[in-house]
Amino acid sequence: MGKEEFLREARKMGLGEDLISEIIKEVEEDIAFGLSVDWAMYLIPPVIND
Question: What is the pTM of this model?
Fold first, then answer.
């Protein structure tokens, strides 16, 4: 999964733009350090405690 597909899926899931931006920044930093990144791991729905 690439960045564009991640963006589409994250928006479909209803993630906020601030959170999406934070994830992108974090992942791009990891990539810059030479780490292999799976964008899909950030698409796990957050746990909601009632």
Answer: 0.79
